[in-house]
Design goal:
It contains eight helices and four strands, in the order αααααβααβββα. The protein has 166 residues and is an alpha+beta fold. α1 crosses α4 (51-61). 46% of the residues lie in helices and 8% in strands. A four-stranded mixed sheet has the order 2-1-3-4, covered by helices on one side. The structure holds FE2/S2 (inorganic) cluster (FES). FE2/S2 (inorganic) cluster is lined by residues 91, 93-96, 133-137, 140, 142.
Length: 166
Amino acid sequence: MDREQAGAVLGTHACEEIDNWIAKFPEGKQRAASIAALRIVQHENAGHLNVELMDAVGAYLGMEPIAVYEVASFYSMLETEPVGRHSISVCTNISCMLCGGEDILAHIERKLGIRVGESTADGRIFLKCEEECLAACSEAPMMMVDHVYHTQLTPGRVDEILDALE
Ligand code: FES
């Protein structure tokens, strides 16, 4: 796939966004935009990547496909399989654990009828792997929903947050 073909796969809007990121880096260092490019493409593909899209990002940035796969599989905010459209990450590291983070996670699993790593059958919610600390320890317990932090959680507050997700 050449760069023009990659652009056709990615679409005009995604390419414009990726070009903005490429412009932030020195000439010839466009691979530095790979994380941002993958996030843009993921966002425009219902929250996940696939091989065709990753290959297109690689061709657009002049990277070998394997280098793109390595980025996509390393960073936890990138999904390489279809998942629910709302992503939830519950922190269960030490501060959150001491403040009930594991109970919060168990409450969510019971409420949604899924386990960590699964999505609800209606495709509404993806319960991601437990996070190792999202740097909001003083506000524990906490979770991240679609990259927004929710802190000092209680089961009741969790219900409000989840019930508001469409
Ligand atoms: S331990 Fe949960 S945010 Fe740090």
